Amino acid sequence: MPKMTRLPLRSTLMASVLLVTGAASAQEIADTIYSGGPILTINDSQPSAEAVAVKDGRILAVGDLADLKQLRGESTETFDLQGRTMLPGFIDSHGHVVMGGLQALSANLLSPPDGGVGDIASLQDALRRWMTDNAQTVDKVNMVIGFGYDNAQLAELRHPTREDLDAVSQDVPIVIVHQSGHLGVANSKALELAGIDASTPNPEGGVIRHDADGAPNGILEEYAFFTVLVPLLGQLGEEGIIAFARAGAQLWASYGYTTAQDGRSTAGIVEALKAVGARGDLPVDVVAFPDVLEDREYIRDNISRDYSNNVRVGGCKLTIDGSPQGFTALRDRPYHDPVGDYPADYKGYAVINMEQVQDAVNWCYENNIQVITHANGEGASDMLIGAIGAAQEKYGDPGNRPVLVHGQFLREDQVDSYQKLGVFPSLFPMHTFFWGDWHRDHTVGPVNADNISPTGWFRDRGMIFGTHHDAPVALPDSMRILSATVTRRTRSGDILGPRQRVDVMTALKAMTIWPAWQHFEEDDKGSIETGKIADFVVLSEDPTAIDPELLADLRVEATIKNGKVIYDAPDAIQETELRRSPFTASPEIGERLLHAMYEGMAID
């Protein structure tokens, strides 16, 4: 009689042992057989299957359940899908997994559906509540951070100011982070501590906004903001950053990701990821891309196609411009109707110059290193296209698979240029939901808004692409990505660019096999095929069999890495709270991370 064992899943995903013993030899006996629901392989030569057998973390066989009987043994367990759908684990085309910890532990300033902030008053209330709930920490370290406000979703249609934050506290330094991550606001105390006053010049690649009387109004753009926030975060210390890394990886796993990206790392962050991995606390693989302007020697010494304890350096990150919804992305024409004090010909700006772009791209090509480049506006893409073209003329094509990150505003001729240069586009169609109405009304206007994140243009040319969440800009919500890519519904219900919509299977490939190619991992990940790593996600329903308008409502029921369950969905109420504040369900981790975060940021 076979031994009775069970996978660590709740009753909704109960596992039991197959009681049929086959005649297979020991090396052919599966550890686990998955069946009982639709299995979408994302493999065009075998699009679906009844069952999948796994041994030693690899896929042993894919096919009909009857044909897999020979792989059963006394110790073989079965994962009963109970009508749910299994796909390959999602692969993060672009995100910032370590900074997911900041999103989790700061005051939640997100607008619906991920938060409750809809105007300046509710933002102030959210900060006050957080300060009350965390009074002991605030008293000890004298600092408050809020994350995720979006002026496009506030009733006032403006950024909060120094005075708005002063109304919360004039004594405690407060810094709030815009949802784009590219700008933020500081109260008077935080500005004072940062040494910013009316005489402070704009840093290169950044803007300090001012009141009519010339005093800083608290709103800081790009490098002006980073010069305030980054040093504070840099004081987290090793344990604080390690806690961030662990927490972010857990959050990614809860959305079905088995491979995460840290898309603008530092050497310190990568070393923290390695420390978490060495402790066995990284549930997912993480590919890191340190900043090419800061860490070239570290990148060259650590780049690898192989993981060590679930971590590797995959290449480098280059950032050319800023946020389209924040009007800091570099366009090739003026913004349509920007909200704020902008000149009529305002086009945004680059955060680095063309010489820096060319030098960075040349270094990557000379050293055969992959470069992923943040370029949101058409002007930024013009710079990137020019730099890659010049590098290829000088060095040829070393096969380093350069990546365009975001590409929110593109001309169709630029899509042709990216195709010619062999650039892989990692696109951001979630913008059609979160900021589609804002783009239509304010950034690019109703005509050009139809073509933001132009997945249709790339598919018209037969190009593959990835889709991403850019968390912590938004939660790493895989089903929101899927929904936005297929439907392009805005918050108001408008369809933004019906021509740019793609079918569900194309959208799923952009979350699995195509970003696997982006990361040079297509031989191991991205589809359910014999020999590949057993990375899976289990969804509540088959996304190819439901009304596309319901895609955002699908739930990730389980995430499986190397054949082991790393995430098991709680009930719906717990899940909602977990994803708004991922440490609510784990006070011990939350307390430890809060302590580590704020202990490092204590202000004398």
UniProtKB/TrEMBL annotation:
Residues 1-26 form the signal peptide. Keywords: Signal. InterPro entries: Amidohydro_3 (IPR013108), Metal-dep_hydrolase_composite (IPR011059), Metal_Hydrolase (IPR032466), YtcJ-like (IPR033932). GO terms for molecular function: hydrolase activity, acting on carbon-nitrogen (but not peptide) bonds. Residues 77-567 form the Amidohydrolase domain. It comes from the Bacteria. This is Amidohydrolase. It comes from Pontibaca salina.
